[in-house]
Amino acid sequence: MSEKFYVTTAITYTSKKPHIGNTYEVVLTDAIARYQRMAGRDVFFLTGTDEHGQKIEEIAKETGITPKQHVDKIAGEIRSIWDLMGSSYNKFIRTTDEAHEKVVQKIFKKLYDQGDIYKGEYEGLYCVPCESFFTESQLVDGCCPDCGRPVEKTKEEAYFFKISKYQDRLMQYMDEHPDFIVPESRKKEMVNNFLKPGLQDLCVSRTSFTWGVPVDFDPKHVVYVWIDALSNYITALGYDPDGSSEQFQKYWPAELHVIGKDILRFHTIYWPIMLMALDLPLPKQIFGHPWLLSGQDKMSKSKGNVMYADDLVELFGVDAMRYYLLSEMPYAQDGTITYENIIARYNSDLANTLGNLVNRTVAMIHKYFDGVIPAPAACDPLDGELSACALASAKAFSSCMEQYKTADALDAVMNLARRSNKYIDETAPWVLAKDESGKERLKTVLYNLAESIRFLGVLLAPALPETSGKILEQVNAATQSLDSLERFGATEAGTKVGAPEPLFARIDEAKKMAQINERIEKNAPKPEPKKEQTPQGVAVIGIEDFAKVSLKVAQITACEKVEKSDKLLRLQLEDGDNGRQVVSGIAKWYAPEDLVGKKVVIVANLKPAKLRGVLSEGMILAADCPDGDVKVLFADDSIPAGSKIR
C-alpha cells in the first residue's frame, strides 16, 4: 500500500476574479502534488472556493443579483482558471456545498455543547474586505492593518470560541514540532506577534448579515468565516462529528496546507486550536508562501497593475507561465512579475537553453542516424561529466521538491540543460560526422544527449506537464519514472525518435511589448475628468486637502541598503513619537553613512507599504533636479525631531 499525501490550497474568496498572484498558489500546489505522485505516493489534492460573508452579500446587492448567483459566477471563473493552468486537483470544494454546510453546523454545535463556544457581545472595529475585527491599537492610521482600508465600528451579539483555553497546548505543540510552520520566519512571526502576547477569544458568529451558514440552534446568527472556511479541509474528506467517512480516516491529517503568508494566523493558530477542540490530529505542516508582486507592489485594480492568468496564457502559453511562477518565486521572499521579466526568462531558459537543446539533438539523430538512437560506443571523460551532472541534478531536484523549493528544483533541471548544451559544444557532433573515424564517438555523444533529454523530460513533469510530454515523445522515451533517474543509461538504443518540433519559439521583445501595451491601453479604465489646473499644470486643491497631509521633521538614526535592491535604502527615524522605519529609493544618490544624523521632512500619515518585503511607514521629501538628479530636503539642525510642518 502506497504512502498517502494529502495536500491543500487555501480556498479562494469569491469576491472577484483571481489575479496571477492568487493563481500562483494553485500552480505551486499542483507541482507539489504531481511530484508526490511521481514519487509513488497516494495523493489527494484539494482546492476550492470560500463563498460566504458580508463582503459577498454587499457586492451582490450592488450588482442587483443574489449572493448565490454571484458566487456561482465567480466560483466558475476560478475553477476554469485552475483548469486552464493544468491543476490536477482531486476535489474542488465550495463552501456553499450542502454537505459542507451541514457538517459546519454540526461542528459549531459540538464545540458549543462541550463549552468551547459561548454567547456574548462584540464591540469593536471591523474590516469588511478582510472579515476581521481589530482593536484601536492594532489599526494603522485608523485603518485596517492588513489591507489599509477603513474599518467600521460594530456592536452585536455574537458567539465566541475559547481559543485562549488552548494557547499553552498549541505553543507546546509548536515546540515539539519545529517544522509545523515553514519557513522558520513565519513561525517566529506567529509566536512572537500573537501567541506570546496572549490570545483573545475569537468571534465565530455574526448577526449583521445573513449570507452564511445559519447556526441551527440560534438562526439569527450565521457561522463566521473561521469555522466555515477552515473546516473545508476536513469536510471535503467526509468528516462528520457523528461518524466520519473511510476517506477521512485514510487521508487525515493533511501532510501539507499551502497558504499565502497573509492568512498565516488563521491557519496556524485558529485552525489548529479548532482541531484540538474537535480532538483531531493537526496537519503535519503548513507552508506560508510569499507574495508575487507586480514590480515592487502588491497587485491592485486601483494601481492598475493587475495581471490575470488567462491573459498571460494567451500571450505566452500555459507551461511558460507555470515555469515563470515556479522558477521566479523564492522560498521565503516575495517574488516579482513584469512582462519584461517573463519575456527574458522565456527566451533565456525555455527557448534558448531547453528548446534549442531538444530540437537540435533530435534533428542530429535524424540527420546522422536516420532518426534511430545509436548504441554508445567510443567513450570519453566528458561523458562521465554529463552523466554525473544528470544524476546530481535528479537528486537535487527531488531534495528541493520534498522541501517545496520549486525555484531551486527547476534551477537543478536547467543546470542539466545548460550542461548538455555545453557538452554539444565540447564534442562538436557536426565535426565528428564529417569523418568516418568520428562515427563511433558520434554514436556515444548522441546517445548521451538523448538520455540527458529523457532526464529533463521526466524532471519537468511536475512543473511543465505538457512540455514534459512533448520532450519524452520526441525522444520516444519508454522509461519515464522518477526511479529510472537513479542511473544514467535507461534510454534504449535502437529507439526511433519523433519529429524535431520546436518547444518554445523565441519571442521578439519589441513586438511582444507593443502587443501588450496595446492590450493594456485598450483595457485601461477611462480617465476621470481633468481637475482645474494652475498655469504650471498642477492640479488645484483646497486647504482641506492639504490639511490631510501630516508633515513632520525626523532625524535619521540609522541607514542601510535594502538587501537585493540597488535603489532602496532602509532609514530608521526618530520622529518625536516611537520612531519609525522608512524605505526610500535614493540609494543612487546617497550613501547610507552620509545620511545618519541628518534631519529630513517626512509624510507621517502615509499608509504603510512593503517595498522588497521591507515595511515602510512613511515617505521622505526630495526634489527632482535637472539631469535626473534627486536632492533630499534636509531640515535645519535646530528644528527638534517631531516638529510639525504647516
Overview of this protein structure:
The chain is an alpha/beta fold and 646 residues long. The strands form seven sheets. Strands 1, 2, 3, 4, 8, 13 and 14 form a seven-stranded parallel beta sheet that branches. Strands 17, 18, 19, 20, 23 and 26 form a six-stranded antiparallel beta sheet that branches. It is globular and about 90 Å long. The chain starts with a strand and ends with a strand.
Uncertain runs: 533-537
Q: How many strand elements?
A: 26
Give the overall average pLDDT: 91
User: Which percent range fits the helix content?
Assistant: 40-55%
Give the end-to-end Cα distance, rounded to a whole number of Å. 74 Å
Class per helix and strand makeup: alpha/beta
Inertia-based shape: globular
Q: Helix count, per DSSP?
A: 21
Radius of gyration: 29 Å
Report the biggest beta sheet as strand number plus sense, adding barrel if it closes. 7 strands, parallel
Q: What's a concise summary of this model?
A:
With 646 residues, the protein is of the alpha/beta class. Helix content is 41%, strand content 17%.
Give me some keywords for this one.
21 helices; 17% strand; 7-stranded parallel β-sheet; 646 residues; single chain; globular; 6-stranded antiparallel β-sheet; alpha/beta
What secondary-structure arrangement, pairings included, does this model have?
Layout: E1 4-9, E2 12-13, H1 20-38, E3 42-50, H2 54-63, H3 67-84, E4 91-94, H4 98-113, E5 117-127, E6 132-134, E7 152-161, H5 167-176, E8 181-182, H6 184-195, E9 202-203, E10 205-206, E11 213-214, E12 222-223, H7 225-230, H8 232-235, H9 246-251, E13 256-260, H10 264-277, E14 286-289, E15 292-294, H11 309-316, H12 318-328, E16 335-337, H13 339-369, H14 381-402, H15 406-427, H16 429-432, H17 439-459, H18 465-474, H19 509-523, H20 543-546, E17 551-561, E18 569-574, E19 580-584, H21 592-595, E20 599-603, E21 609-611, E22 614-616, E23 619-620, E24 622-624, E25 630-632, E26 644-645
Parallel strand pairs: 1-3, 1-13, 2-3, 3-4, 8-14, 13-14, 15-16
Antiparallel strand pairs: 5-6, 5-7, 7-9, 10-12, 11-12, 17-18, 17-20, 17-26, 18-19, 20-23, 21-22, 24-25
Helix pairs in contact: 2-3, 6-10, 11-12, 12-15, 13-15, 13-17, 13-19, 14-15, 14-17, 15-17, 17-18
